[in-house]
Known about the structure:
This protein is mainly α. The chain has helices at residues 12-28, 34-55, 59-82, 87-105, 108-117, 122-126. It contains six helices and no strands.
Amino acid sequence: MIVEGSRRPRSVTPAVVLVMLGTLVAATTAAGPQQAATLVLLLVAVCFWFAVRAGRGRRGARTAVTCLTAGILVLCAPFALDDPLYGGATLLLAAVLAVPGVVLLYLPDADAYLRARSGEHAENAEGVEG
């Protein structure tokens, strides 16, 4: 028996791929001090892990990947803006890839999939007793 909303919508896989590509591109701009580069690479690895978990239907992972993606873009901004030739364009490309990926994870089909996979029904989420 398949629960309604438990099949992965088409938007989830591209969302995961876009988030991964965007954070990876953002990480390429963090070529500053060694500690900053190490921190960014660690955040990217954790973001990849949460993105995969979000693609498998974990709601907490979706929230974590949203926060990590925003954090990575903010953390990489000073490094990207220090590079006068390609830094700003690289950061813009990262944002153009990652932000739509995060948005795709919040579409109604993806939200229904995540609720079904986490065991929460739409009626319980809205506060309607049934």
